[in-house]
Design brief:
Layout (H helix, E strand, L loop, with lengths): L11 E3 L2 E3 L3 E3 L14 H12 L4 E8 L17 H16 L3 E7 L36 H21 L4 E7 L2 H6 L19 H14 L5 E9 L11 H14 L3 E5 L15 H9 L3 E4 L6 H8 L8 H10 L5 E4 L1 H4 L4 H6 L19
Parallel strand pairs: 3-4, 3-10, 4-5, 5-6, 6-7, 7-8, 8-9, 9-10
Antiparallel strand pairs: 1-2
Length: 368
């Protein structure tokens, strides 16, 4: 039995954003931007994937213009003349190759070490001073500090539009700053930024609204969210669909256009009694387009067999195709398969099974 994968390669339009395929390059931290400046090699890295049918590239997390945003010298900045000139060249190259690209605006919060580079004078910040392990490592953010970060996100959004990007993604997942406000472990505030799960969305909603004000009504805003955290893979913000609905409503109302529901294994149901995954539930509850992600294409032998015409129904491609055809999800993000193989999407489209290779050890140590 042969299955057509054509729905995965059809153009899709979401408001003002049209992507040539349903495939998304997931944001993956690379750290090849000395002093925060993306190099020509970084440009070529993104360009290669756009040339090979990745419909939407989400860049690695980029540091917004806040001194405690990230730790490390090689994380790309999204401020300053040299980094922004480099990003403009990257946008132009991706567009010339037929792709679309958004930056992932990132603030690490208390996942960053105090006084880390590049701004060694800056202490890291978080909602209550607790890190993802529940350790008290700082002070609660003041209202002024909160507003400064919100402003930095909005400035990043405006910069993205000025540089010609096709939208933005706000990193609200995995235990970084935005997610630290969501999570009861790290948000123990007793003011209006803390409290119930819905109340803990206030910071993120204000970030989204500030970004929307900065870019206007038609510039796409993606929000990446997750249940799991870097410090706790088993964490759950919402334990039921009802709790998830309460969590999502303020974010959707704030102006999110597309939700990126991050999971480690996309095929796993999010709640008992339904086969829907995390992204599927987000779409059902908000009516907004969603990106699913989490080990798509990791089963290389099963993918190869599918491309040869052998199907069992168990490969990740068949599972994600089913989600697409059932209208449970809209876009599919890839991580490791395209980390080391920029042609992965085009190889799958043309059924070049033998050309697919396993991800080699140390793949994250170079730019393929």
């Amino acid at each position: 039995m042969t299955i057509s994968l054509a729905p995965l390669f059809a153009p899709q339009t979401f408001g003002t954003l049209t992507v040539p395929t349903r495939w998304v390059m997931a944001p993956m931290t690379r750290g090849f931007s000395p002093n925060g400046v993306p190099t020509a090699e970084v440009l070529a890295y993104y360009e290669r994937r756009a040339k090979h049918r990745v419909g939407l590239i989400v860049t690695e997390g980029v540091a917004i213009a806040h001194p405690a945003a990230v730790g490390g010298d090689d994380i790309p900045h999204f401020y300053g003349s040299e980094p922004l000139a480099a990003w403009r060249r990257i946008v132009e190259a991706v567009h010339a190759a037929g792709g679309r690209i958004v930056p992932q605006l990132w603030h690490q919060g208390l996942e960053r070490q105090h006084h880390d580079k590049p701004h060694t004078e800056a202490r890291s910040v978080g909602p209550s001073g607790f890190n993802g392990k529940g350790e008290l490592v700082g002070e609660p953010m003041s209202d002024g500090e909160i507003q400064a970060v919100i402003t930095a996100f909005a400035e990043g959004a405006a910069t993205a539009k000025q540089l010609g990007f096709d939208g933005i993604e706000i990193h609200g997942a995995h235990g970084y700053l935005v997610d630290q406000f969501f999570w009861a472990m790290t948000n123990r505030r007793t003011d209006s930024y803390g409290g119930s799960l819905a109340a803990r969305t206030r910071f993120a909603a204000e970030v989204v609204r500030a970004c929307r004000q900065a870019v206007g009504a038609d510039f796409p805003i993606i929000l990446r969210i997750s249940q799991w955290k870097v410090a706790d893979y088993e964490a759950k913000l919402a334990k039921t669909p009802e709790e998830l609905a309460q969590f999502l409503a303020p974010l959707s109302d704030a102006g999110v256009d597309i939700f990126h529901g991050s999971t480690r294994r996309f095929w796993e149901p999010e709640f008992p009694g339904s086969a829907l995954n995390f992204a599927g539930w987000i779409k059902k509850l908000t009516g907004k387009p969603v990106i699913t992600v989490g080990s798509v294409g990791s089963d290389i032998d099963a993918v190869k067999e599918l491309l040869r015409g052998q199907t069992t129904g168990d490969s990740t491609l068949e599972k994600v195709l089913g989600m697409i055809t059932r209208h449970e999800v809209d876009l599919v993000a890839l991580g490791r398969p395209i980390l080391a193989d920029p042609e992965w999407v085009s190889k799958v489209e043309s059924a070049r099974a033998e050309a697919l290779q396993p991800v080699p050890p140390g793949a994250d140590e170079r730019l393929y």
